Amino acid sequence: MSILIVYDSIFGNTGQIARAMAEALAQTGPVKLASVQEARDLDPSRYNLLIIGSPTRGFRPTPEIQEFACRSDLPKTAAVFDTRINLDTINPAPLRWVVQAGGYAAERLHRELADQGCTVIGPPGEFVVEGQEGPLREGELERAADWARGIAAQAKTAD
Ligand SMILES: Cc1cc2nc3c(=O)[nH]c(=O)nc-3n(C[C@H](O)[C@H](O)[C@H](O)COP(=O)(O)O)c2cc1C
């Protein structure tokens, strides 16, 4: 089973998460890691599984990732992840509710891909950054590697 990981990243945190996933999955089979810019020149339909991730910005994925998720040549099976701010670092506290209620990139990506007929395996990966620019919360790279292994195992059974 071949896997394509596509991500966007403004400050580098989502990129680090995607890299940790790629390194974990490279032990099990062929994996291609591509930023959303690099992925424009790829043929995603050549892969069995797409793992796609974005920073949450304004409750949604970046426009570049949203555009990629609308392509008509994506693999039939996908999994989604995002990075998001640590709610505890948001002040004043009522703003935390607004951020949480606004929603996150992964759930929007899930909806977008499912609407196109993609089988989205999950749970969505949700990884936390401290403040707007990071760094990643401690342990998130290990969690990302574990999440990716779980997704790959799920995809293999679904194959
Ligand atoms: C303009 C802007 C909007 C953001 N909006 C949200 C948001 O709606 N929800 C959230 O949890 N985090 C939000 N964040 C925090 C981002 O999720 C965080 O910057 C991102 O996860 C870092 O990933 P990156 O280093 O890959 O860019 C926002 C950050 C910026 C700069």
UniProtKB/TrEMBL annotation:
Coiled coil: none annotated. It comes from the Bacteria. InterPro entries: Flavodoxin/NO_synth (IPR008254), Flavodoxin_dom (IPR026816), Flavoprotein-like_sf (IPR029039). One of its GO terms (molecular function) is FMN binding. Residues 3-152 form the Flavodoxin-like domain. Keywords: Flavoprotein, FMN. This is Flavodoxin-like domain-containing protein. It comes from Devosia ureilytica.
